[in-house]
Design goal:
- The chain is mostly beta strands.
- Helices cover about 10% and strands about 45% of the residues.
- The protein has helices at about 5-10, 15-20, 20-25, 80-90, 135-140, 175-180, 375-380, and strands spanning about 30, 65-70, 95-100, 105-110, 110-125, 125-130, 140-145, 150, 155-165, 165-170, 190, 190-205, 215, 220-230, 245-250, 250-260, 265-270, 275-285, 290-295, 300-315, 320-325, 330-335, 335-340, 345-360, 360-365, 385-400, 405-410, 415-430, 435-440, 450.
- The protein has a 25-stranded mixed sheet that branches. A three-stranded mixed sheet has the order 7-8-11, with helices on one face.
- It is globular.
- The structure holds 2-acetamido-2-deoxy-beta-D-glucopyranose (NAG) (12 copies).
- One 2-acetamido-2-deoxy-beta-D-glucopyranose binds near residues 148, 184 and 337.
Length: about 450
């Protein structure tokens, strides 16, 4: 039997329901249905395929859902809708479809632990904004163990699909301004994943994250598809550390078909990121697609392995392809970013088909991260090895920042790096040069004009 919503339910929204005390008592609008006809106002779950490169594991598959819950909203841009959100997620967990309805605005003013999710679709058609109460968020956001990362909400569980075409807004301006006056401000990341498995996140618009847009921790088999990221500060205070995605203790992640305008790494692979496919991205204004930084913490062993990066256009960035490793001695980039002395391994990394447009370094392999004094860095060679790295089919022009160098390959000792290959590198500096600073690497496998002119690191 085809399910059809009664007219009154078809216009169900929180504002309507709030006017009615009986409805307000209910958690959310719930509707069960059978057969293949979905109720009105639901977006079909996108059929995501990973193409043209295919991941190590097929994208997750989900069974159909059999219930719909519509999230209520005060729709006034001030009141906290968090209870409505939690209620709908609980009501439709284990087999349902939750709808943030088009035309409503949702405000989230409470840190939400969403690690209970299981077999659920979350259909974000509307506009969701996090509140601007920086005092509340700094005291209550979720703390991750890495680099003082915190998040507005923590997403975890199994078989979760988030889609719908809506916008999620981190209200970043207030945070960019606060950070400018205090670098120890704990700015939440927009999407915090901790233990999310067999899931997809697609067709979303993300705006003004206070810090990273995604932090992916302890997660496996998650695909991101068609994500549009932009933000930026409207004041003189720059929106810093707005990485697109950071992966940590995670494997089998795909990030593809996305458009990113940001102010730090477009993507970064933090410690213990393995089997990751990145393809078809437009990145503008970033710090490139980065392995690292690694080796930040003494006594830790960081692994980044089996990474494939394909078909990226990189515009107005500090780097296109980057591997950044802290030296084996304490170093500081800034008061809130310091480290060095850790070990580990970077192995089997490919950057294939990269367009470079006004980028400072097309390729930057750097084992002196956070230490601008090269002499000092070389006195403490890194115990973190880099091997089997392929840079292939790069095209375009670098900026004038390090001209005539287009790239840098700098390992801290002879034994730190092996089998680093750069082939088909058709990248020119402002005057047509193809120079690169090469140190402790096999120059025979690098399709650049290796020189010993050190111009610095990003
Ligand atoms: C989903 O996409 C795959 C690959 O493009 C295709 O084989 C499959 O038939 C599609 N499934 C549906 C339900 O559209
Ligand atoms: C914070 O948000 C509230 C509610 O939208 C608004 O009234 C207030 O002006 C905002 N405060 C700042 C500092 O932007
Ligand atoms: C929600 O608020 C917006 C404007 O803030 C308004 O345009 C819209 O009609 C409201 N939706 C409902 C269902 O009241
Ligand atoms: C990941 O899992 C480990 C082990 O269960 C846990 O200690 C840690 O807090 C989790 N989160 C992060 C961000 O590492
Ligand atoms: C975390 O923040 C504290 C100060 O709040 C700072 O001392 C420390 O260096 C930070 N740690 C990292 C890894 O950034
Ligand atoms: C992920 O999916 C696979 C295959 O369906 C399943 O074996 C595994 O248990 C799932 N992972 C979790 C954490 O549920
Ligand atoms: C990364 O994996 C290695 C090897 O399993 C382990 O020793 C190390 O503690 C892990 N690091 C983190 C940050 O989880
Ligand atoms: C490369 O990515 C762009 C989007 O940035 C896409 O339009 C194009 O089709 C992709 N090319 C291939 C060969 O997949
Ligand atoms: C790239 O970033 C610059 C600087 O923020 C901006 O002016 C430009 O419009 C962006 N380009 C695109 C295509 O988004
Ligand atoms: C290297 O990584 C790629 C994915 O980027 C993977 O397909 C391949 O199997 C890995 N090679 C080895 C020897 O593990
Ligand atoms: C760099 O470090 C070396 C070795 O410690 C030291 O001799 C030199 O003065 C330093 N250079 C600068 C510019 O600080
Ligand atoms: C390579 O770089 C050196 C030093 O900058 C320069 O003298 C030489 O002309 C370059 N060779 C080519 C083939 O570009």
């Amino acid at each position: 039997m085809h399910f059809k919503l009664p007219a009154i339910l078809a216009v169900a929204s929180a504002t309507v329901s709030i006017a009615n005390p009986t409805w307000q008592a209910e958690n959310s609008w719930i509707q069960s249905f059978e057969g293949h006809q979905a109720p009105e106002h639901t977006s079909p779950r996108p059929n995501i395929s990973c193409f043209p490169k295919t991941p190590h594991q097929p994208p997750p598959w989900s069974p159909p859902r059999n219930k719909v819950c519509y999230v209520k909203s005060y729709n006034d841009s001030v009141s906290d809708d968090s209870t409505y959100v939690l209620n709908a997620l609980h009501d439709c967990n284990n087999g349902g479809h939750v709808v943030f309805k088009q035309g409503l605005k949702y405000t989230i003013g409470t840190a939400l632990d969403l690690t209970f999710l299981n077999h659920i679709d979350i259909d974000v058609q509307s506009y969701i904004q996090f509140s601007n109460d920086t005092t509340y968020w700094q005291a209550n956001s979720f703390r991750f163990v890495f680099q003082n990362v915190t998040s507005f909400f923590k997403l975890g569980g199994n078989d979760v699909n988030i889609f719908g075409g809506g916008t999620i807004d981190g209200n970043g301006q207030i945070w960019y301004d606060l950070y400018a006056s205090n670098i120890y401000t704990l700015r939440p990341v927009l999407f915090g994943l901790d233990g999310l498995h067999n899931s997809t996140i697609s067709n979303l618009v993300l705006r003004y994250s206070p810090e990273y847009y995604h932090f992916i921790a302890n997660s496996t088999n998650v695909v991101f598809d068609n994500i549009n990221i932009a933000g930026g500060s409207k004041s003189a205070n720059v929106a810093k550390n707005t990485d697109g995605w950071d992966t940590y203790r995670s494997s089998d992640i795909v990030i593809q078909n996305s458009h990113i305008n940001n102010g730090d790494d477009c993507i970064s692979f933090k410690p213990n990121s393995t089997n990751i496919l990145i393809q078809n991205l437009f990145c503008n204004g970033s710090h490139g697609i980065s392995v690292g930084s690694l080796g930040q913490y003494v006594g830790e062993f960081d692994i980044v392995q089996n990474i494939y990066v394909y078909n990226i256009s990189m515009h107005n960035a500090s780097d296109a392809a980057r591997i950044k490793v802290w030296p084996n001695t304490p170093s500081a980039l800034s008061g809130d970013l310091q480290g060095g002395g850790g070990s580990g391994l970077v192995q089997n990394i490919t950057y294939d088909t990269i367009l470079v447009d006004n980028v400072d370094y097309a390729i930057e392999v750097d084992q002196c991260y956070g230490q601008s004094n090269l002499t000092l860095c070389l006195q403490y060679p890194s115990p973190l090895t880099i091997s089997d790295v392929l840079f292939t089919n790069f095209q375009g022009k670098t900026s004038k920042k390090y001209a005539p160098e287009t790239s840098t390959f700098a390992c801290s000792s002879d034994s730190a790096c092996s089998n680093i290959v750069a082939q088909g590198i058709d990248v020119q500096s402002t005057g047509g040069e193809r120079d690169a600073f090469c140190l402790n690497v096999d120059v025979a496998t690098l399709d650049v004009n290796c020189t010993d002119t050190y111009k610095g690191f990003n």
